[in-house]
Input
Amino acid sequence: MYYDISYLIFMLPAIILSMWAQFKVKSAYNQYSKIPNSRGLTGEAAARAVLSAHGITNVKIEHIKGIMTDHFSPTENIIRLSDGVFSQNSIVAVCIAAHEAGHAVQHAEGYVPNKIRSSVIPVANISSKLAIPIILLGFIIQSSASDILIWTGIIAYSLAVLVYLVTLPVEFDASKRALQTIQGTRMLDENEYKGAKKVLSAAAMTYVASALTALIQFLRLVSAVTGRKR
Output
């Protein structure tokens, strides 16, 4: 019972932040996805404008089906924009497209946190799947290899946590680049710009919540392992 209660206490801030962030994202998205921008810019046009403002001409922009499936693929050098963004002229379409173009700019300029994230992700995807089974195996077996397995699993899990943490500066910077370009090129008027800022700020908080959750889970895991030795 002690561990269940302590786990809930540890996780409560992350749970509250996550719920609040999701509410803010949905609220901002629902509001500004229904408001067309005064210049009639589509998401595709907005993404091209951000790339052009930074002198980038070798990035493709494609349509991808789905909702909120927007992303930049650094291996293909392609920005993919979803149904509600690619050909739509809402404020949401502009700010999301500009954000993804911001990632393309990061890639082109060799933004260090982005390079770290890209290099860690392939290893973290594998290690995160193996971490818990390795740790559980270490708890189950009774041998000299038990501690080695447990700490190997923790190290593997820490790589996944690292991805969450390094994602924060990457996402915040992409939004910063997007907003600066939107404002500098006057893609949106003053009120529309404020709406775009609300959308991207709310989206950024979901990454903060995810990083906090991952960090707390990692610290809880380490606490459980060190407590086992007492």
Q: What stands out?
A: Residues 2-228 form one domain. The radius of gyration is 21 Å. The longest strand covers residues 60-63.
